[in-house]
Amino acid sequence: MNWQSARSVLCVRLDNMGDVLMSTPAMQALADALPGRRLTLLTSHSAAALAPHLPMISRVLAWDAPWAKHAEAQAAPAPGPEIAACARWLARFRFDAAVIFTVYSQSPLPAAVLCALAGIPLRLACCRENPYTLLSDWIPDTEPGTQPGPRPRHEAQRQLDLVARVGAVPRDTRLRFRVLASDRTAVAGRLAAIRGGRSGPVVVVHPGASAPSRRWPPARFAQVAHALAVKAGAHVLVTGDAAEHDIVRAVCAAAGHARVVPLAGALRLGEMGALLEAADLLVSNNTGPVHLAAALGTPVVDLYALTNPQHTPWQVPHRTLFADVPCRYCYKSMCPQGHHRCLEDVPAAHAVQAALALLGGTPDSLPAVELPWPGTGAAAAAPAEFDAVPAMPDDGATRHLPHDEADHVHPWH
After folding, report:
1. Is the pLDDT of residue 177 over 60?
2. What is the value of pTM for the model shown?
3. What PANTHER family does the record point to (predicted)?
4. Burial class (CB within 10 angstroms; exposed 0-12, middle 13-18, buried 19+) of 17
């Protein structure tokens, strides 16, 4: 067996939706490399909601790996029995090969053990240490940490480089997300009701994020929502999942404008995709909807915590806003310094100006700002002038992959 003849390939991406979306160009390249190749995605239950929206994937398997960095893993049982049971379950599929996608700060070796136990003969990943026989093919991971040197690759490019090692060269490097016709229809009706016949751009504001270190203050989002409703006549839709009702309502209440509408828990994933496809702009923390918007070609204002330099919006008009700090690129979900200055020091006015420039089709009116990197001279540059915005006070059951259904696909909701 070799990669050129591997027809059944397991793609392992065990973290969150945004990470899966950033891997879609590489997965598409794998699918295109051999006619008739069938890809299966093994991912977390939360990311498995993407199942109907990934055109290159034939089957999605949901499993909450006990070592992975996602909410479900925090409640996972002891890893030994889980891993052995999952390996036995995967062995039933008789995969020819497995590609293990990880971010730089993750090790692929636990997943490599899983795939080896499942009897998958070809196993590919990036790895910082010698994997010996756990990986049949691997790329030594020399990605820089925080030291001076080459700027690190974007996460999407990192995965494209990985699959290129085994001959999967992409024809198209965009992120992928398939919007279903039923979701377009549902969202079109909702937007018509919200607009009420009034004109104006549609702006989606997403104030939540799974990691506390990636959350801009809700009151700043409220200032941005208010300013865009007033200055651009925008219909501002504030989104979040059901657990984010409080933050969404707080943003809308503080914004204090009839065109700012709460949509917490109101949209399924497919409808969120349809909404972003129809929207003129997304203003968000650096979280899943940013990568969803990038997949759909919607411009993004990204409030970008300097936790990881590799996750900016990919191949879409955007502005990343941040404050440079000495502790940049901590790779932490909780700010280890406790001050969140990389986001706390970004004023709402900068986000408003970036949003207006993107809405007006004049992003070149803003300075092009790269994320800072030691030795490159790149630093955070804010617009020299901006209009004031109204001042507002700052607001301060785990499911596992079943082993009795060989073709289980996690239902999305």
Report:
1. yes
2. 0.85
3. LIPOPOLYSACCHARIDE 1,2-N-ACETYLGLUCOSAMINETRANSFERASE-RELATED, TETRAACYLDISACCHARIDE 4'-KINASE-RELATED
4. buried
Q: In this prediction, what percent of the chain has a pLDDT beyond 90?
A: 67
Distance (Å, whole) CA 233 – CA 231: 6
Distance CA 378, CA 360 (A): 27
Q: What architecture does CATH give domain 186-365?
A: 3-Layer(aba) Sandwich (3.40)
The domain made up of 3-164 has a fold known as Rossmann fold (3.40.50)
Which residues lie below 8 Å from residue 326, measured CB to CB, with a gap of 6+?
A: none
Burial grade of 113 (CB within 10 A; 0-12, 13-18, 19 or more): middle
Measured between alpha carbons, how far is 128 from 137 in angstroms, rounded to an integer? 13
Question: How many Cβ atoms from other residues are within 10 Å of residue 51's Cβ?
Answer: 19
Least confident of 145-149, 255-259, 329-333, 401-405: 401-405
For the beta carbon of residue 136, count every other beta carbon within 10 angstroms: 21
Q: Are 261 and 193 in contact (CB under 8 A)?
A: no
Residue with token string 């049949």: 136
Is residue 399 within 8 A of residue 45, CB to CB? The reply is: yes
Question: Do 356 and 181 meet the contact criterion of CB atoms below 8 Å apart?
Answer: no
Q: How far apart, in whole angstroms, are the C-alpha atoms of residue 270 and residue 255?
A: 27
- Taking the C-alpha atoms of residue 232 and residue 243, their distance in angstroms, rounded to an integer, is 30
φ, ψ for residue 395, nearest 5 deg: -85, 105
For residue 135, how many other CB atoms are within 10 A of its CB?
Answer: 23
Q: Taking the domains of the chain in order of start, what are their residue ranges?
A: 3-164, 186-365
For residue 275, the one-letter residue type is L
Taking the C-alpha atoms of residue 385 and residue 101, their distance in angstroms, rounded to an integer, is 42
